[in-house]
């Protein structure tokens, strides 16, 4: 026969910790703790099956249960030596729901059950605090009326508010015992008036009604909704837990407190916590009295202290994790009210995991699974001392983690100059562009009012490992006036400001920063992760110093080296601009030339002569810019060769994936708007000069090259296909660099990556250019270089046609930034206009630029892997979008079977840990749920 | 035993027309014609199998074939009464390849085989044209040397050029008989010197060598490449056709000509063609002599004429299609050299198809399959008289079909004014924007220097059915100076220009235009298409007049009514701007409000007070713009209601799909660049006024709303989700319009379409708004309206997650313009920078904005249909991208199982025909190949 009730108390429980089906999560936990000898307040659990019968019977608890309950209550009363609701020393209980799966706040709870017009006096006497007793009683009436009798809470709240107004007080706590006594009368009257019955004084009636109310709450609308959302079956039912209430405020032999078995901030193995004598749990939390460090309890109640230490140590050993516990001492008797795994900082998590392995408490695999990968972030960046955190003036996007303080500056040049002079500065801009690089490099941190998580500022700052807040929309920046404002608050140049790139906050003033401390445990821990992970971890790095930083963090190569960032140096941008301008012109003429040539075919006589003349003129015109253009390219070649030598050398022994030129041309050009204004003003002044004419010509070219949607425009391999000379120059620079390094004795493995491929023919075309140049260069240099040619998979069509693309690719690298942009139709630079609202309204669960949209983008990735490998079983596939550093995305990549992930240097440890966890989760299904 | 040789001639052939495997395509055709009693020059075919043996034997023709060949040649000589290469009246033959599948120009051909030092005299005598005979001989030597002996053609060409230079003549035809005789000697010497053998004088040796050369040419590199490209198997081999040469230039009893069995321009059933007495085929084509109308032949050679008419009629009946034939009369004997289906204009195609059905020659299904759908375009737009076509000055994209002439104007206002004054004008712009609508409407045609096939100008012009050339990059437009230039040619305001939107050409001057003539056959034909097609055809139309035009073309509803075009009217754009500007401001404040509210929670004491004060200020600030914003919306409501009444009424009885607001906000705003210039100039002048301040404020808002990639920005349902009031207003206007029309007795079926959905939650959100408003409105009006709510499928993610999206959608409509943009990562406004080169380089076969990219975009469509119908088997799915009017895309949509296509009004007949063809092709697989 099925058992309906399960007792726990007196060191023994009828249930067990693995009986969640029957006892619900809370009931099973109470049984487990009781059996482990932990002194939890005793009680009994009514099984989930009873709830189902209750529902089936249309809201009737079976008679046999009601009868058993009398026996169980008697047993509890006997154990406690008190009777429910008796007048002098009343037994009071809580009645709580507890389903198999946690449904926080969805169902009902009733506290202090057993209070009535008589027992309230007993509670007052025992606690020597009549005010407390009457407050408990009026709260109990309100809770009971609301939960059991379905009265509106507001009726009671209104009465309470009126009373406070009448007494001229602000807070509930300012009401006197007399006020509360009167309030109890009023509340009872309200119940009488609205519920059609009086408030039940019989504690056993209270208990029966409360139990049934909890059973009913299984089917309240919010519980049903919650189950639907969380895919919890409707036919589980909830258990009901009836548990003795204990009080820490019954005199000086009472106390209450909270604690941790290890320091949750540092991870140090120390008994850590606070307590208050003669107090309730609320008092510890509310801050009305200052709690004592738990060490004080050793003097005050040495016996109890020893018992607490012994018990909590047992708890930690039992659960094999740091415990965060609440306790109450009622008349020298210790009760543990709650215990759970303790939340901890990243630093603490690592230290605890490592020490627990050394103590033999857990194994390495479990240690690795214990530390949330994202939490390592805290170990890698400075942060604001939480104890002295200034108020946030405004909040933007947390674009690059870490905190920084400095003097506000509004121009890159100012940032550069002041930093040179030794002043720490924060660069504040509406948005940044390549011209600002030197200022960004000089600043401690960057904040912009526009742009998203992958705006220029964000990407560059993350690459530099520098704090950045982006898209801080409520901040208005006036660079001319060298100030910015949020509401009425104005920040002028030189003012101290602090930004927190981990939270997106802007603060006025200088904050105390805590520098990252990477202790010895961190190194040990990271080594363990490498024992488990299956995927390689590379870094996205453009410069040797970034590559070195990445390697120090354990990167095993570079997954993305963006060559365009190399073009932005002061000395180069001019050459690049020259190249683009003349190339564009040259290209345009070439199109005209071809048009004229084809026109010529269909012409005779005088017309033919006319077209021929035109053809000659075009040919003449082409000559000069063409040379200018090729000249620019040849000026870039030696510079690029040195760039690549630097990066390849700093990652010698590992593969380095170098992407050919990717961004739209106009990113290298001045702004049309600014040029127009300069020209209009000069004309208004009546100026006229060759420079002005040049400016006008420049404007005309810039406007010609202007694109409505540059992200979907003439960029990526489209540049390489239309200007093969650029790809050829870059390939030559890469192979020359590799040849020279090999001759110097370095092992180098360049992987040349073609961006923005949408059709296999683009890749074929570009690979042909690269292979031709490589062959010629290696022959000239007499050196063989192991190089690969592969492609980004970042356009949906490339994913869909991966079987075609794979025929020319030696590797795939998912560019999930662009793939997300195109699959979702989201411009990452512009999402700030609607994404925050989308997340607020629940349309998206999270920013898809941070964590891969597994259903949409992920489906294309799955298709690409399947189709790509259908052609080339061993195709090397990785990811170099910024998602490569996001733990959830790393798990997903592992499930897809990728060979590596690549992320910004500062996220390499996170990716290593996530990769290890992904491998372990695949290995140990049981531990997956432990992680969740 | 397998037969190696097949004779044809004397009214009988050993082979048959269905023996392409054995005889190759050409050989089978010759056999078929011979058996049908058509007098083709006789000959024999050496089977494809021999070619395979030849290859296997390493280039040896089997002995048994060589032996049979002697017999067959003898039979041919007997039939013709001449011997190969005999001195006085020589038999001459051609030797040609002919594989199962046509491989034009890939393999070798030799003409006039049998000529040698003796027979050349015979030919001279018979043709009474020694110059011709010697020219044939020297060409034969050159061809033989090149094809059979592998000598370089250039060696001979150089000698020829030198000779012409020496003689001081320009053309080959200016060389005399003596020149040619000398040239033959030189050519023979060249063969001696370079081939290591003398030119073979023995005709049977010539024949054997030529045959083997043709067999060898099956494996020449260009044939192999061609087969690879066209997926033709390598193991088929080619046949060799040896056929008697006939001459139309042997005297006045000889002639040559070409003809059609019906007029290919008009389709009229008349014997149509030209001929020349005593001439070669070349003479007819080259235009050196003026050919006579074929009717003249009736007088000149009545017998032969009658035979020709009889034979060609037989040919038409045999092939059941218009025949385009070539004939030669050699000494009163008629030979048909070639016959094939005749190319015809769209007009002719329709007339011929209809008349052939009436004649009982073909059935309706075949008639429908016979007319290429795209060719109907010619019936629907004016075109330039091809006889008097001006030279093209420049060529852009053929953005909207039809031709137009008018006076050049450069500003929309000028276009409007001059058109009002009765002058036809062509509007020339760098690009158009919504402010230009009135000018575009007034112009005969539009040409722009920027933008692609789906730029504003292109889309609007197609909607208006007006010719448009877009992206004419070589044209530079200077609107200020009211002129444009291409190279040195400048067009000023008032100059006559002509544009051809079907070819993309810009011409200087006024052209003669041929107006479309839609005869009675066209109507009959279109009715037949409706008998076969399975898919509905709707039109994309925003205005009642477009809807009416569409209906007159047979549209069965509107598949896309864009509401934003309704916003661009002079009176409305101001209201819309007001709305956007205040809405944006309001929205910004709301975000700040929420930030402040959430900030408040974590603050206490003085800080809390500060945040509270801020909160109050924001609340205060929100009030005013919010009212302004809602005020603008309520001003738009009645205007929109009237818009919708117009469109719904004009399509009464049919469904009308109305899309909620789609474009990015900034499309309604002035340009930041222009505003900056105005402000800078005003400031330079020292001006200061409230208007200037307003302008500055406007600039700041415009810049705030600026987006890097508006196509992927805050648009589509993202507007509706963030500003639900806009969707609500539009839904209300639609339902109110429908209610009023129903009360007036009209049947209306509005389908409300939510654009740019990427996640099912967006659709849920918007559908909820629409349904709420619809319910309320219908209750208020007391009318029930049958309305649907569905979504565009235009974001890759929507296609991928169609099973989720379909749960809230009552219909899907593929927005293949945007779907193409995002799947390929192509901004349609910017592709002009690289797409032409992509097509030139073969990276793409065609513009994916014209014909659906079936491999990439099509795969997503397939996924969407499958997943959408997995949830809702009967889900209505259509397409409203511009591909809906492209025949190939219509075929594809039929194969996907869509219920309807929707296209611009002027393409409705094309879509109807294509839909019928798609249904027929699915039904009759044999006829699919007939179409190809």
Short description:
The structure is a homodimer of 932-residue chains. Chain A is of the alpha/beta class and 932 residues long.
What would your notes on this structure say?
2 copies of one chain form a homodimer. With 932 residues, chain A is of the alpha/beta class. Chain A has 4 domains: 5-244, ATP-grasp fold, A domain (Dna Ligase, domain 1, 2-Layer Sandwich); 255-341, ATP-grasp fold, B domain (D-amino Acid Aminotransferase, Chain A, domain 1, 2-Layer Sandwich), CATH 3.30.470.20; 381-514, Phosphohistidine domain (Glucose Oxidase, domain 1); 536-571 and 631-664 and 707-923, TIM Barrel. In chain A, 49% of the residues lie in helices and 16% in strands. In chain A, strands 13-23-22-15-16-17-18-14 form an 8-stranded mixed β-sheet. In chain A, strands 25-26-27-28-29-30-31-32 form an 8-stranded parallel β-barrel, surrounded by 6 helices. In chain A, α4 crosses α5 and α5 (130-147) packs parallel to α7 (177-195). The longest helix of chain A has 46 residues, at 605-650. At the A-B interface, β13, α21, α22, α23 and α25 of A face β13, α21, α22, α23 and α25 of B.
Please identify the structural class of chain A as seen in this structure. Answer: alpha/beta
Specify Rg of chain A, calculated over alpha carbons.
35 Å
The major beta sheet of chain A can be summarized as: 8 strands, mixed
By DSSP (H or I, 4+ residues per run), the number of helices of chain A equals 35
In CATH terms, the superfamily of the largest domain in chain A is Phosphoenolpyruvate-binding domains
**How much helical structure, as a percent, in the residues of chain A?**
40-55%
By CATH, the architecture of the largest domain in chain A is named Alpha-Beta Barrel
Find the count of extended strands of chain A (DSSP E, 2+ residues): 32
Biggest protein-protein contact in the assembly:
A-B, 79 and 79 residues
């Amino acid at each position: 026969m099925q058992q309906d009730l399960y007792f726990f108390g007196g060191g023994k429980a009828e249930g067990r910790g693995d009986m969640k089906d029957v006892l619900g999560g809370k009931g099973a936990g109470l049984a487990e703790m009781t059996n482990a000898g932990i002194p939890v307040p005793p009680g009994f659990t009514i099984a989930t099956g009873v709830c189902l019968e209750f529902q089936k019977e249309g809201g009737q608890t079976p008679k046999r249960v009601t009868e058993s309950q009398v026996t169980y209550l008697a047993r509890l009363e006997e154990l406690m030596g008190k009777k429910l609701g008796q007048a002098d020393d009343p037994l009071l209980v809580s009645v709580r729901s507890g389903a198999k799966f946690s449904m926080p706040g969805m169902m009902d709870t009733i506290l202090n059950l057993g209070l009535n017009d008589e027992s309230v006096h007993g509670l007052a006497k025992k606690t020597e605090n009549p005010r407390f007793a009457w407050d408990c009683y009026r709260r109990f009436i309100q809770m009971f009326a609301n939960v059991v009798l379905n009265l509106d809470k507001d009726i009671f709240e209104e009465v309470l508010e009126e009373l406070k107004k009448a007494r001229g007080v602000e807070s509930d706590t300012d009401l006197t015992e007399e006020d509360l006594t009167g309030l109890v009368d009023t509340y009872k009257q309200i119940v009488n008036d609205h519920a059609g019955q009086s408030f039940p004084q019989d504690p056993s009636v209270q208990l029966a009604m409360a139990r049934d109310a909890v059973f009913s709450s299984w089917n309240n609308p919010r519980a049903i909704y919650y189950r639907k959302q969380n895919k919890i079956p409707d036919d589980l039912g909830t258990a009901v837990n009836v548990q003795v209430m204990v009080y820490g405020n019954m005199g000086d032999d009472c106390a209450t407190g909270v604690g941790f078995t290890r320091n949750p901030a540092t991870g140090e193995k120390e008994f850590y916590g606070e307590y208050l004598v003669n107090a309730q749990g609320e008092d510890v939390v509310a801050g009305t009295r200052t709690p004592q460090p738990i060490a004080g309890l050793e003097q005050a109640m040495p016996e109890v202290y020893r018992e607490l230490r012994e018990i909590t140590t047992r708890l930690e050993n039992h659960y094999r994790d740091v415990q965060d516990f609440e306790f109450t001492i009622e008349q020298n008797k210790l009760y543990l009210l709650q215990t759970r795994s303790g939340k901890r900082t990243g630093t603490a998590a690592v230290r605890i995991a490592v020490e627990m392995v050394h103590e033999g408490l857990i194994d390495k695999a479990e240690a690795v699974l214990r530390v949330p990968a994202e939490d390592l972030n805290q170990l890698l960046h400075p942060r604001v001392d939480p104890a002295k955190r200034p108020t946030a003036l405004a909040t933007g996007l947390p674009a690059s983690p870490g905190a920084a303080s400095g003097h506000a500056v509004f121009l890159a040049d100012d940032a550069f100059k002041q930093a040179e002079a030794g002043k720490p500065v924060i660069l504040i801009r509406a948005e940044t562009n390549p011209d600002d690089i030197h200022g960004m490099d000089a600043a401690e941190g960057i904040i912009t009012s526009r742009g998203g998580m992958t705006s220029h500022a964000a990407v560059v700052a993350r690459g530099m490992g520098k704090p950045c807040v982006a898209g801080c929309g409520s901040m208005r920046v006036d660079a001319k006036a060298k100030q910015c404002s949020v509401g009425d608050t104005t920040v002028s140049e030189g003012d101290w400001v602090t930004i927190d790139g981990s939270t997106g906050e802007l603060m006025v003033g200088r904050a105390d920063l805590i520098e990252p401390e990477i202790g010895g445990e961190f190194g040990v821990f990271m080594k363990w992760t490498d024992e488990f992970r299956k995927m390689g971890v590379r870094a996205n790095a453009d410069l040797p110093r970034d590559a070195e930083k990445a390697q120090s963090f354990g990167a095993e190569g570079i997954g993305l080296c963006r060559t365009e960032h190399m073009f932005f140096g002061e000395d180069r941008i001019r050459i690049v601009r020259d190249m683009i301008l003349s190339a564009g012109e040259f290209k345009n003429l070439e199109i005209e030339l071809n048009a004229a040539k084809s026109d010529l075919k269909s012409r005779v006589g005088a017309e033919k002569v006319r077209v021929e003349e035109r053809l000659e003129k075009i040919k003449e015109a082409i000559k000069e810019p063409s040379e200018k253009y090729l000249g620019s390219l040849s000026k870039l070649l030696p510079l690029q060769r040195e760039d690549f030598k630097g990066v390849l050398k700093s990652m010698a022994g590992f593969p380095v994936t170098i992407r050919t030129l990717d961004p739209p041309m106009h990113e290298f050009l001045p702004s049309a708007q600014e040029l127009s204004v300069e020209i209009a003003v000069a004309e208004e002044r009546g100026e006229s000069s060759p420079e002005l004419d040049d400016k006008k010509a420049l404007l005309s070219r810039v406007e010609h090259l202007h694109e409505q949607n540059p992200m979907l425009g003439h960029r990526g391999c489209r540049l390489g296909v239309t200007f093969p000379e650029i790809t050829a120059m870059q390939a030559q620079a890469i192979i020359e660099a590799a040849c020279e390094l090999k001759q110097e004795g370095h092992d180098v493995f360049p992987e040349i990556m073609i961006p923005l491929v949408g059709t296999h023919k683009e890749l074929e075309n570009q690979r042909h250019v690269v292979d031709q140049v490589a062959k010629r260069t290696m022959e000239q240099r007499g050196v063989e270089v192991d190089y690969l040619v592969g492609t980004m998979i970042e356009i949906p069509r490339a994913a869909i046609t991966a079987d075609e693309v794979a025929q020319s690719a030696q590797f795939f690298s998912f560019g999930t930034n662009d793939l997300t942009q195109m699959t979702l139709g989201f411009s990452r630079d512009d999402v700030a206009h609607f994404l925050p609202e989308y997340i607020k309204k629940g349309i998206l669960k999270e920013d898809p630029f941070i964590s891969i949209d597994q259903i949409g983008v992920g489906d294309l990735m799955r298709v690409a892997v399947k189709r790509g490998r259908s052609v080339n079983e061993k195709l090397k596939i990785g990811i170099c979008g910024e998602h490569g550093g996001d733990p959830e995305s790393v798990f997903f990549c592992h499930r897809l079977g990728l060979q590596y992930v690549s992320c910004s240097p500062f996220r390499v440890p996170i990716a290593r840990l996530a990769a290890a966890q992904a491998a372990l989760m695949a290995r140990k299904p049981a531990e997956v749920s432990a992680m969740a």
